[in-house]
Amino acid sequence: MTMSLTKPAMRGLLAKRLRFHLPIAFGLSLIAAIAFKYAVTEPRNKAYADFYKQYDATKEFNAMKEAGIFESVRPSGE
Amino acid sequence: MAHPSQLGFQDAASPVMEELLHFHDHALMIVFLISTLVLYIIIAMVSTKLTNKYILDSQEIEIVWTVLPAVILILIALPSLRILYLMDEINDPHLTIKAMGHQWYWSYEYTDYENLGFDSYMIPTQDLNPGQFRLLETDHRMVIPMESPIRVLVSAEDVLHSWAVPSLGVKMDAVPGRLNQTAFIASRPGVFYGQCSEICGANHSFMPIVVESVPLEHFENWSSLMLKDA
Question: Which residues form the Cytochrome oxidase subunit II copper A binding domain (chain B) (predicted)?
Fold first, then answer.
């Protein structure tokens, strides 16, 4: 008398595959979006906020003027 | 101006451009979200032995892949429309400048108080001084007061041109016989470069735009000097 084999799964194969892969797919894409947000978006927002928080337009203008980059106003030496 | 091999936008020099940068980050984040999802699904689809030639329809998945993209589109559209209306607000400019496109140079007219007008030709490469930028410098720059709303009326005298300064977030087509209006505020002092953005003939690549943003008193000195020289 031989041992009978267990009946293989014959239904629900796609559903099983989807149950496994879809959460991973959505999870990975959410991780990609969150990673982009914290690696690119937030540093950029912070950089702009920090730049303008202590920005002294007159000081920067004078530094640029002395460097000679403007056509309308020359360095004080000239 | 752009650095060599720069991929992203130039640093924003106007509030509108800052908004556009943040919106682009938001849209690109959504693009990455969709792209990783689709890439994963493609890999899963090509690496399975499961095949069924007889699936005819499935209401559930149809609903999912209709509603989800609609939601994503709304998430993109809301910030986009916000910026669109922001750019369209009545802005009460302090100064109006006319930028006229010619083949192949720009001319600027400041006619609010006196009649100041001048042409702005590209400086040829052989005439550049050390430190100047190739194909970007002009003999006369469009000088504006910083932190003031500026209105630019753009038109053309011959063929189509386009007046664009990326760091200010401005681009407006110059159409002969038509006055197009755009406005911006330069948030900080500096020199901002742009290039003609509509094909206009042999020297389309050689008619750049340079905007110089300085404090108001220096702008007034400059315009008096320009009027005297004229």
Answer: 92-225
